[in-house]
Amino acid sequence: MTDATSAARWRAGILAAVLIAGGGGYWLGQSGQGDAPTEAAGSGGRKILYYYDPMFPNQKFDKPGKSPFMDMQLEPKYADDGSGIAPGVSVDPAARQSLGIRVVAAEMGSLAATFDVNGSIDFNQRDVAIVQARSGGFVERVYRLAPGDVIGSGTPIADLQLPEWGSAQTEYLSVKKLGKPDLTAAARLRLRLMGMPEGVITEVDRTGRTGGRLTVRAPIGGVVQTLNARAGVTLAAGQTLAEISGLGTVWLNAALPEAQAGLVKIGQRASATLTAFPGETFTGRVIAILPTASADSRTLTVRVELANRGGRLRPGMFAVVALGGDAKPALLVPSEAVIRTGTRSIVMLEKGDGRYHPAEVVAGREGGGKTEILQGLAPGEKVVASGQFLLDSEASLTGLTVRPLEAAQ
């Protein structure tokens, strides 16, 4: 056999092998492509929950087919992974420490009975006195006072000359000389109706002399807020001369977050500390919760009335107020374990099967780093307190179903 004949046969053999391999590969590829979905759908009798596109795992489909988003077939989502374990996020034990995953059991306990909010001192708006002219006249003298002065009860404010009072007193003395008790009583009543103090009437009775001069005094002690009396000013009946705010008690207006509005009731005890008086605590009671909330800070105003012995509490002072009621038993988890999505709250459960499962919960009060769970968890269930956001992201990407509230043990 010549060398040319041997080379030709060798080339023909290689070509035949390539054709056979290509044809066989094509047949295997076609056979595998047609049989793969059938085999996966019936593999081990596993239950298919739904179909999904791996690029859009949150969108679920009832039937297999082509993805409307990508040029690829939908993938089946099974009720388990073939090992009998419910679906969940699995983390290699060696990677848990590096990811900082920390698991804590939900347990019964009690939140702190009180919580602190900020507030400021204000005048007691119920302890206000308005000093007015009871009759027309003019101001003879004004005592040395100015707005902002702290005065005591009975402090003179101004001397008034009231001509109408003088003529009414003269008429009363004339009627009294007639010796008719009914007319005398009527004339005396007229003096009272003109606003004449009983002491002035008694003085007229005793001395028999008239006088339209009156010294106006402060009916309560406190701070002069306004002073409209000026020497020589003509007065009309009912004109305001001064306004005085009492200092015997003050209001402490505290800003209460609306999330904690249900924890405060009228009549509850409250205590306040002020930087002006370190080491001292001022106690009072909640007298009102104002009906409107601040749109900017989302807070309610809680009004606490405090005794102001010695007048040391000055309006405008800053205070820290301790509010709250009695502590109640509650199911607690660390506050960082609760993932708030805006529409619901979620925790990541550790079931002991090496996987983590999302569960919906209803969160309640917070305090001391703990959050109360009202619904969705049972005592003893373990939740992820650190690294839960990574697990939640993985659960969302894989399309895991969140355990509903009704399914909680």
Structure keywords:
alpha+beta, 6 helices, nine-stranded antiparallel sheet, 409 residues, six-stranded antiparallel β-barrel
Describe the model.
The structure is a single chain. The chain is of the alpha+beta class and 409 residues long. It is 23% helix and 38% strand. It is built from six helices and 26 strands. The protein has helices at 3-41, 93-99, 163-177, 181-193, 198-207, 388-397; strands spanning 48-53, 56-61, 75-78, 89-90, 102-105, 107-110, 115-123, 128-132, 137-142, 150-151, 156-161, 213-217, 222-227, 234-235, 240-246, 249-257, 269-274, 282-293, 299-307, 318-323, 329-334, 339-340, 345-350, 355-367, 370-375, 382-386. The strands form five sheets. Strands 4, 5, 6, 21, 22, 23, 24, 25 and 26 form a nine-stranded antiparallel β-sheet that branches. Strand 22 and strand 23 (345-350) form a beta hairpin. Helix 3 (163-177) runs antiparallel to helix 4. The chain is rod-shaped. The chain starts with a helix and ends in a 12-residue tail after the last helix. 20% of the residues are buried. Residues 1-8 and 10-42 have low confidence and may be disordered.
